[in-house]
Amino acid sequence: MRLRPPAHRVSPRAIALWELEYLIAGLLLAGVAWGAAAWIEASQWPALPESVVDNIWWLPRLALSVAVFGVAAAPLWRYRVHRWEVSSDVVYTRTGWFHRHWLLVPVSRIQTVDAGQGWFERLLGLATLKVTTASHEGSSKVSGLRVEQAAGLAAELARRAHDLRDDAT
Which domain holds residue 63? Predict the structure, then answer.
């Protein structure tokens, strides 16, 4: 049996959010690699082979290459894959890079619903919706939603979960 993809994509502004996040992470990685290369070259580590010390400056170049890939390709791929949907009885999400992860969270099992914003999300008018259940594996998160959309979904899901909650807990 094959699951159909959830109906909605996240906001197109999520691409800019993820590019910004990958850019910051990539620059930090390249900075650490540059610092490590400079330290190794200056200290002439005897434990490292001479060929490694002589070619140590490939490390920051490699880190920058990974950062460029992260900024250029990963956000577009992520936007293509990440989807969400809220039906009358389930929150349905799909995430993943190489391995797809489909998650269906029954509305009746929702314990908390949160809509939050990080710094970069606030700059771009985006938010993250977090749906929590008693099971760690049953919790879901949708990043890259418009603020109004995330807040409206959080209020709607909280109301529905309250209405559907059975007294068995």
Answer: 13-77
